[in-house]
Design goal:
The chain is of the alpha/beta class. The chain is built from 11 helices and 12 strands. It is globular, with a radius of gyration of 19 Å.
């Protein structure tokens, strides 16, 4: 990589940050497409986040930020503008400095998820969908599903209070039935999503009872480690159509490029995502 004084710099902020795969993927794409830019990870503690992000975006060659756990919600108060999905979910995973100096944010997690469903030919409109887990990813997914006119989005969480609050907020933003449910029972749903960490550790229980899935249901487990996860293996044993979370990440790549002003590159990458899949090992 030939980094010079004219190289445009992007940062990905997280705590921790060693696990992120975006720098390898995007820096490869920048080189491949002749873009003089670099994405650099920065390990920033929550207590330092607001000051760091504000100061970083004052540097004239730092054009934007990728945000990962736990900073997606913390960026919201620092924004001058935010897209509808980010406002509804209360989180963003990208922020840029506009020409007028204002800071704008956008949320792509849910967009990546719904585009993955399109890739797998899983319909959304009018369907009954259960999202298990209302952390950052679960909320982003629920927001995008509601925006895509799902028939019903049910939110299940170990602690019901956040699910109730998220459901109420999403109903305000979208013409969709969004509700909190007190159970993870997947019966009666067309699509069931595991947006919890369950499956990362060997002793974890399944996020829901696979035996209760309707025969024609589809399942997505957004975990990207320990593949195939116990949930995916259990679904395969039952003949249930089930998918891992890699495609959700892959489908976000053109969205980031477009948001950061690389429209031509975004269109080229979106036209053939096979190279991105190879970069992420999917």
């Amino acid at each position: 990589m030939n980094i010079s004084g004219s190289t445009r710099v992007f940062l990905i902020l997280g705590d921790p940050v060693a696990q992120v795969k975006a720098p390898q993927a995007f820096n490869h794409l920048f080189r491949e497409h002749g873009i003089d830019a670099v994405l650099v990870p920065a390990h920033v503690a929550p207590t330092d986040f607001a000051a760091f992000a504000t100061q970083a975006l004052k540097a004239r060659n730092i054009d934007g930020l990728w945000l990962t756990i736990p900073h997606k919600s913390s960026m919201i108060p620092l924004l001058d503008h935010c897209d509808a999905l980010g406002l509804a979910a209360g989180a963003v995973n990208a922020a840029r400095r506009n020409a007028d100096g204002s800071i704008e944010g956008a949320l792509f997690d849910g967009v990546g998820f719904t585009k993955a469903l399109d890739h797998w030919a899983i319909p959304i409109e009018g369907r009954r969908i259960l999202v298990v887990g209302v952390g950052g990813a679960g909320v982003a997914i629920a927001a995008s599903l509601a925006a895509r006119r799902a028939g019903c989005v049910a939110l299940s969480a170990r602690n019901p209070a956040p699910a109730i609050e998220v459901a109420a907020r999403l109903r305000e933003h979208f013409q969709c039935e969004v509700m909190s449910v007190a159970t993870t029972d997947p019966a009666g749903y067309d699509l069931v999503i595991n947006a919890t960490p369950l499956g990362l550790d060997p002793g974890d229980p399944l996020a829901f009872d696979v035996a209760r899935l309707d025969a024609g249901a589809s399942v997505v487990d957004i975990l990207m480690k320990n593949q195939p996860t116990p949930l995916l293996r259990a679904c395969e044993a039952r003949g249930i159509r089930a998918y891992p979370g890699f495609e959700m990440l892959i489908q976000q790549v053109p969205e980031y490029l477009s948001f950061f002003g690389m429209e031509g590159m975004s269109r080229e990458v979106a036209a053939d995502l096979s190279g991105v899949r190879a970069l992420f090992g999917a």
